[in-house]
Amino acid sequence: MCHVIVTCRSVLWTLLSIVVAFTELIAFMSADWLIGKAKLLSSEDMDNRTGGSQEPYHPTLGIYGRCTRISHMWLSRQDTLCGPYAENFNEIASEFWQATAIFLALGIMILCAMAFVSVFTICVQSIMKKSIFNVCGLLQGIAGLFLILGLILYPAGWGCQKAISYCGPYASAYKLGDCSLGWAFYTAIGGTMLTFICAVFSAQAEIATSSDKVQEEIEEGKNLICLL
Predict the structure, then answer these.
(1) DSSP code of residue 47
(2) Which value, to the nearest 10 degrees, does the dihedral of the CA atoms of residues 192, 193, 197, 200 take?
(3) Strand positions, DSSP E, 49-195
(4) How many CB atoms are located within 10 Å of the residue 77 CB?
(5) How far apart (Å, rounded) are the C-alpha atoms in residues 118 and 206?
(6) What is the dihedral of CA 182, 187, 188, 189, to 10 degrees?
(7) I need a labelling partner for 128 at 20 to 30 A (CA). Which of 36, 57, 58, 212 fits?
(8) Dihedral (C-alpha) 64, 179, 166, 23: value to the nearest 10 degrees?
(9) From its phi and psi, is residue 100 left (phi > 0), alpha (psi between -120 and 50) or beta?
C-alpha cells in the first residue's frame, strides 16, 4: 500500500534537489564563463549627425557558446548575439573543455534524474528494501564528484586559441590573462557545493520519513501522513 509521507526535511531535500539540478543546468548552458577583455565597437547614426562613437563592451565565452555584440550596417542599434560557436562536440575549443563538458553533462544528468525521482518519494520511500533517499544521496554525491572533475579541468583549457582570442596573449592554462570569471563559473561552483549538501541532507530526509511517529501513524491506518 502506498503511504503519502510528507515531512519538513523530506520536502526541503526534494526542493533542494530540484534547485541544484536547475542551477547546474543553467550554468552549463550559459556563455558567461569567461568575460573577455574590453573591445571597441564603432557605431554610426543613419544621418551621421552625431558622427562615430566608440563604445567598449565585453564579449563572453562559455564551454561551447559565446556572446558578442554586432552593429547593424544601416542602424545605430547594436545587438548582443549569443549562441554556440561549436556546431558539434569535436569543435569545442579545447580538449580540456571537451572533458569538462562530458563530466558536467554526466553530473547534471544524474542530478536531473534524482530531482525527478525525489518528487515521488512522498509516495514511494523504498524499492526492493532499499531506501530511495539513501540511493539518491549516494548518486548525488557521485554527481558532485563529476562536477568537481569538470570544474578542475576547465581552467586547463584557458590556453586554447579561442580563449586567447578573448583573453589576450598572456592567457594560458590556469591563467586568465585579460579575462575575468563570469557568473556561470561561480554558479557552477555554488551548485556543486549544494550538491554535496543535498547528498548529506538525504540522510535526514530518510530519518524523518522512517521515524517512530511515522510508523505509529502507519499502524493506525493513515495513508496521508504530514509531520513537521
Answers:
(1) T
(2) 70
(3) 52-57, 60-61, 65-71, 78-84, 126-127, 130-131, 180-181
(4) 9
(5) 12
(6) 100
(7) 212
(8) 20
(9) alpha
